[in-house]
Amino acid sequence: MNNNDITLEDAQQKVDHWIKEYGVRYFSELTNMACLTEEVGELARVIARKYGDQSFKQGEKDNLGEEMADVLWVLLCLANQTGVNLTDEFFKTLDKKTCRDHSRHLNNPKL
């Protein structure tokens, strides 16, 4: 499989395999939720410095993609350990947003 062709289901399986081979076990759901919050904060810091009014401190990196991938990793862990199929849920959310917002943004004069 080419890494560029990975699906959400593939990603969930790869994370699960990694956890079982190298991670011993999943952290508890509560710990992973705290880890997700931490990773989102790290992502927010990079965005604030790259796109906001702050500048990078000496030694900080513009590692936007890495921080996004860290968020995704923990989210995939949470999905795996709680039995959520993110592919199914993604399409449910896409349908929900399409039905609910099909003209909302098109008719928004602010956009």
Question: Please, could you describe this protein's structure?
Answer:
It is globular, with a radius of gyration of 17 Å. It is mostly helical and 111 residues long. The protein has a single domain, classed as Helix Hairpins (Orthogonal Bundle), CATH 1.10.287.1080.
Q: What is the annotated CATH architecture? A: Orthogonal Bundle
| Domains (count) | 1
Structural class: mainly alpha
**Could you state the order of secondary-structure elements as H and E?**
HHHH
Main sheet attributes: strand count, strand direction, barrel closure: none
Which CATH class applies here? Answer: Mainly Alpha
Query: Could you please say which CATH topology applies here?
Result: Helix Hairpins
Helix content: 55-70%
Gyration radius from CA atoms, angstroms:
17 Å
- By DSSP, the count of extended strands is 0
Shape call:
globular
CATH superfamily: MazG-like
What percent of residues are in strands? under 5%
User: Could you give the distance between the termini?
Assistant: 40 Å
Mean pLDDT: 96
Enumerate the spans where pLDDT stays under 50 for 5 or more consecutive residues. none
Number of DSSP helical runs:
4
Give descriptors for this structure.
mainly alpha, Helix Hairpins, 4 helices, globular
Summarize this structure briefly.
This protein has 111 residues and is mainly α. It is 66% helix and 0% strand. It has four helices and no strands.
